[in-house]
């Protein structure tokens, strides 16, 4: 009888051990399958201009675009976003080489960009491009008034610089004197205030932010053909092979707009609602 009891005990232990091993294997397999389903997506930002994206006092990436991306990451269980900071030119080179799959840097649509890259259907910011001049400037009112004037351009070739360069190609007899600079918009606006430049073709959000932070004052002149200079809406920019990811991003953005979350984030970072 004792022998029988011992045998049954051993059998019971064997069954329990086998069951536990089977459960652990199943959990491990499920965990591996779950991990395999999550796609790591690298998002590139330049770390400027503030408040779109920037490095905060804690040394962490922050800003309006970063906050939106964190919401997207939270709401897409099949995606894990990783941020990488690079210079402006590196944003495009990184997409070309597949080092990055998405760029978030206040990107506006331009035909030359749309030929190579995929843009979202839903924008996350809408703002105006203006001509900023000193308050005592009375002779500049339009783009044509910039002929012969000192106007900053980005050495990395942003949308407004591309427009100014095209303008000069079409007006070779009376070109705008483009002075290329590597300074960010805050430094450039300070140079405008100090007289280095006569005017600055720039997004109004940048003027808002710098004026408050640096106590600068400018006239803000509307541009009649604003959409030719730079589209007023900014989008996330993807590699051409990221159509499905683009649709997922658009879906979350539409939800954020409907919930009022995008407006909330815009007011937090800009001080006003530039989301629509």
UniProtKB/TrEMBL annotation:
Q: Which UniProt keywords apply?
A: Signal
Q: Which PROSITE patterns match?
A: PROKAR_LIPOPROTEIN
User: Would the keyword Nuclease turn up in this protein's UniProt record?
Assistant: no
Checking SUPFAM superfamilies in the record gives: Periplasmic binding protein-like II
Looking up InterPro entries in the UniProt record yields: Solute-binding_3/MltF_N (IPR001638)
Question: Which N-terminal residues, if any, form the signal peptide?
Answer: 1-22
Location of the Solute-binding protein family 3/N-terminal domain: 40-273
Under the heading Pfam families, the entry gives: SBP_bac_3
Signal recorded as keyword: yes
Matches recorded under PANTHER family: AMINO-ACID-BINDING PROTEIN YXEM-RELATED, MEMBRANE-BOUND LYTIC MUREIN TRANSGLYCOSYLASE F
Query: What is the protein name for this chain?
Result: Solute-binding protein family 3/N-terminal domain-containing protein
Which classification does the entry list for the species? Bacteria, Bacillati, Bacillota, Clostridia, Eubacteriales
């Amino acid at each position: 009888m004792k022998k029988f009891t011992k045998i049954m005990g051993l059998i019971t232990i064997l069954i329990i051990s086998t069951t536990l091993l089977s459960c652990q294997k199943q959990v491990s397999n499920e965990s591996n399958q779950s991990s395999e389903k999550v796609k790591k997506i690298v998002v590139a930002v330049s770390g400027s201009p503030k408040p779109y994206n920037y490095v905060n006092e804690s040394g962490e990436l922050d800003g309006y675009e970063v906050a939106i991306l964190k919401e997207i990451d939270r709401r897409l269980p099949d995606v894990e976003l990783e941020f990488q900071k690079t210079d402006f030119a590196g944003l495009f080179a990184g997409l070309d080489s597949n080092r990055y799959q998405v760029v978030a840097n206040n990107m506006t649509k331009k035909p030359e960009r749309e030929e190579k890259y995929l843009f979202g259907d839903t924008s996350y910011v809408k703002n105006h491009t203006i001509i900023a001049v000193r308050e005592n400037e009375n002779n500049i009112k339009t783009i044509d008034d910039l002929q012969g004037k000192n106007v900053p351009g980005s050495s990395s070739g942003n949308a407004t610089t591309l427009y100014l360069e095209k303008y000069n190609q079409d007006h070779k007899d009376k070109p705008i004197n483009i002075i290329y600079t590597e300074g960010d918009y805050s430094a450039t606006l300070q140079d405008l205030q100090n007289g280095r430049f006569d005017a600055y073709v720039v997004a109004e959000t940048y003027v808002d932010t710098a004026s408050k932070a640096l106590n600068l004052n400018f006239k803000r002149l509307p541009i009649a053909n604003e959409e030719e200079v730079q589209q007023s809406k900014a989008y996330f920019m993807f590699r051409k092979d990221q159509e499905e990811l683009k649709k997922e991003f658009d879906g979350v953005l539409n939800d954020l707009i409907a919930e009022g979350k995008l407006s909330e984030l815009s007011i937090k970072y800009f001080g006003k609602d530039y989301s629509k």
